[in-house]
Design a protein that fits this description.
Blueprint lengths: L1 H5 L9 H22 L8 E6 L5 E4 L2 E9 L4 E14 L9 E6 L2 E6 L8 E6 L8 E9 L18 E4 L4 E8 L6 H8 L2 H5 L3 E5 L5 H17 L8 E4 L10 E7 L5 H4 L11 E8 L2 E8 L2 H11 L2 H6 L4 E4 L15 E3 L5 E4 L2 E10 L4 E3 L4 E8 L9 E6 L2 E7 L8 E6 L9 E10 L14 E4 L4 E3 L2 E3 L13 E2 L2 E2 L2 E4 L6 H17 L7 E4 L5 H6 L1 E6 L5 H6 L31 E7 L7 E6 L3 H8 L5 H4 L6 E4 L5 E4 L9 H11 L1 H31 L10
Helix pairs in contact: 5-7, 5-9, 9-12
């Protein structure tokens, strides 16, 4: 029957063996294709939109310039890249002489005249693919002029010369995926790719009954990923093996002890492979990519996780299997800058007459804030065809002008400027150094967009930053409370013995932000599923997660919480800051920064709610910098409608009162010296007056009050 069904009569000229031969050729072709593509087909075009990380900003002046940055993943075969530019210009701008030019990596490729109309405009510009590299700088420059028929472009600058660039401007990519190769490096590139994470195709999976070491290893691996992820909207989720999301990803990192590996992964790593070392191995099957991180002991598993959390090591490992033992160096290298930050690693040139600016971002270690005594040291050159009576350079920190210097012909080939940052200036963990040149020409009659005049900022230009560790037990200082020397600072994490899906979501949120702030993997994290000893708690920075039912330490800490549970520990009760209805108190989650009952010089984060879901709600404000930046108090409350509140309870915000006292003395040392000198002078004067009076008394017969006769 089967043969008859497919038999074609001779009148059609086709025989059964011809069909078999054709089918065979098709099968061979498909097989060859699968071999070439690694067994999976991802030839379909994909799209990804990368938003710039800039806020809505306004540029003023006749000549305007700003830069934005975007990345291209190594594994993208780009077919098209489009710059979507949202902007608004002054209503007084003249559209016949105003212009905007776009360049990528220093190469100009598109110019246009903005339309004369109100509101934001959108310009869609295709970027030449040959200009795109891995890391890219897109520059917007131009002139916004408001005088018609101007023959001379040396026009007076007014507040009406402006362009506003809207947040949300982006680059959209159309591309095909180059499949991951069978190496740790290639897997890691895909696993941490912006598009992979945005589409939730990356997962970290651990065993259903994860023990303390497996939790530590999983979160260490997560922090390594969040350390290098550039987006502030997406994260890699850590889930249990039986979670419904565990197998939905295309790229899965499975972190578990060997005995806890699922059978399909245990087949890929033999017991003898993990006798004396941990194993990190890539494995591709069923259109899914795995990286297995496993060991027989918890110590080696945690060591392997630190290897995975080291971006340099993962980038260098072009093989499918890596063995990690006690002697393997896994620590992240740290640049010892000692507060000296180079503004630019290549000579930075601005061109054109008028007001020209260039800017540099300085980022301090996340556990430190600036202190008084910082300086900017600028080294620069400029053209000699300037009107030196009107040309100058000005340096700004954010929007604060540090000072200006007049340009001179004598120093055009090499000039310097050193400026102090004003005392008491708050810079935060990152700030912008702006260098503005006003380049006026003699008898200028050409456009601002000409290549002359020019000025250059040299690579020897630096920012010397005095900094100190922040000492505030508030969410303005979170998570840097738990960061030291750019890594997690001896963390003890106390969690329920049995973790459900919401608990894993909570841990993912907490460690996503900690990882984003930690630039190194050299710190320690240790999980506990019961209350550690008082000695351990006194020597560690502590995070506690759970409910009164599943974490006994929450019950112990209830008396120390700002938002406390009722007598039977079923709901939160009202306090001086918030009235809480009884049912409402059963559904809210809280994150509270309290003073550690075990160390008066340390803080403790307690994330808790009547249910694990409620605890998770609180962590939704602890996952990204943009979320935590909203809070300045020491307690956060989040309800089921995502309504969140912030409160401050402690009057003294300092973690270590003694340290703050020493800093105040140091900061006011000069005043103290002056006061001391003044006291000493008064004391000497008083002593002198006393001696004069005493001498006078002797002259008067021993009675200092006797009248002179």
């Amino acid at each position: 029957m089967f043969v008859n069904r497919f038999f074609i009569n001779k009148q059609n000229g086709i025989k059964l063996n011809d069909i078999s031969r054709s089918i065979g050729l098709i099968v061979i072709a498909i097989s060859i294709f699968f071999v070439i593509t690694g067994g999976t087909i991802h030839a379909d075009k994909q799209t990804y939109t990368q938003n710039f990380q800039n806020d809505t900003t306004t540029l003023s002046g006749r000549s305007v310039k700003t830069s934005m940055y975007f990345n291209k993943m190594d594994y993208w075969d780009i077919k098209k890249a489009t710059f979507n530019f949202d902007y608004q210009i002054s209503q007084l701008a003249n559209d016949t002489i105003s212009d905007v030019t776009v360049s990528v990596n220093g190469v100009k490729f598109y110019s246009f005249r903005p339309e004369h109309r109100s509101g934001f405009q959108n310009k869609t510009i295709e970027i030449p693919l040959e200009l795109i590299q891995g890391n890219n700088k897109i520059e917007i420059s131009g002139q916004i002029l408001n005088k018609k028929n101007a023959e001379n472009y040396n026009l007076a600058q007014t507040p009406a010369n402006w362009i506003t660039i809207k947040s949300g401007s982006n680059v959209n990519f159309e591309y095909e995926l180059n499949e991951a190769e069978n190496t740790l490096h290639s897997f890691n590139d895909h696993f941490l790719g912006e598009d992979t994470i945005a589409n939730q195709r990356s997962k970290i999976v651990t065993s259903n009954s994860a023990d303390q070491d497996e939790l530590t290893a999983s979160m260490t691996a997560l922090t390594g990923g969040s350390r290098v992820i550039t987006t502030d909207n997406d994260q890699i989720n850590v889930v249990k093996d039986d979670d419904s999301d565990a197998q939905k990803g295309d790229y899965i990192m499975y972190v578990a002890k060997y005995d806890h590996l699922p059978d399909k992964l245990k087949k890929e790593v033999s017991a003898s492979d993990v006798d004396k070392h941990a194993v990190i191995k890539t494995y591709y099957t069923d259109d899914r990519y795995y990286m297995i991180v496993t060991a027989k002991t918890g110590a080696l598993l945690k060591k392997a996780a630190k290897f995975v959390a080291n971006a340099e090591l993962m980038k260098e490992t072009n093989k499918a299997v890596e063995d990690v033992d006690d002697t393997t160096d896994t620590f992240t290298s740290v640049i010892q800058d000692e507060g000296r930050y180079q503004l630019t690693n290549a000579i930075d040139t601005v061109k054109g007459a008028g007001h020209q600016e260039t800017s540099y971002f300085v980022t301090l270690p996340n556990d430190r804030n600036n202190a008084d005594g910082s300086k900017v040291k600028l080294k620069f050159r400029y053209s000699k065809n300037l009107n030196f009576n009107r040309s100058l350079v000005t340096v700004y920190i954010n929007k604060i002008a540090l000072g200006s210097k007049k340009l001179t012909a004598a120093k055009a080939d090499g000039d310097t400027l050193t400026l102090d940052v004003p005392k008491g200036t708050s810079l935060g963990n990152s700030f912008e150094v702006r260098v503005a040149f006003d380049l006026e020409m003699k008898d200028q009659s050409t456009s601002d967009n000409e290549r002359t005049p020019w000025a250059e900022v040299d690579t020897d230009s630096v920012m010397n930053v005095k900094s100190q560790r922040s000492n505030e037990l508030l969410f303005t200082n979170y998570p840097t409370i738990f960061i030291k020397n750019e890594t997690y600072n001896n963390l003890a994490v106390v969690v329920p013995k049995k973790l459900d899906a919401d608990d894993f979501r909570s841990l993912t949120n907490i460690f996503n932000l900690i990882g984003a702030y930690a630039k190194s993997n050299t710190g320690t994290i240790q999980f506990y599923n019961k209350k550690p000893s008082d000695q351990t708690l006194s020597n560690k920075n502590v995070i506690v997660l759970g409910t009164p039912d599943n974490n006994a330490m929450i019950r112990t800490l209830n008396k120390n919480l700002y938002f406390k549970y009722n007598s039977n520990l079923s709901r939160f009760v009202s306090n001086e800051k918030l009235s809480i209805e009884k049912d409402y108190g059963k559904s809210i989650g809280t994150a509270q920064l309290i003073r550690s009952p075990y160390n008066d010089k340390a803080g403790m984060l307690v994330v808790t709610g009547p249910s694990s879901k409620a605890s998770y709600l609180a962590t939704t404000q602890l996952n990204f910098k943009k979320n935590i930046d909203q809070y300045s108090g020491d307690a956060i409350v989040v309800d089921e409608d995502n309504t969140h509140y912030s409160y401050r309870f402690k009057k003294n915000k300092y973690i270590d009162a003694g340290l703050e006292h020493k800093r105040m003395l140091s900061k006011n040392s000069q005043i103290i010296i002056y006061v001391g000198i003044a006291v000493l002078i008064f004391a000497v004067m008083g002593l002198g007056l006393y001696l004069i009076l005493k001498k006078q008394a002797k002259l008067n017969g021993g009675n200092e009050y006797a009248k002179q006769r």
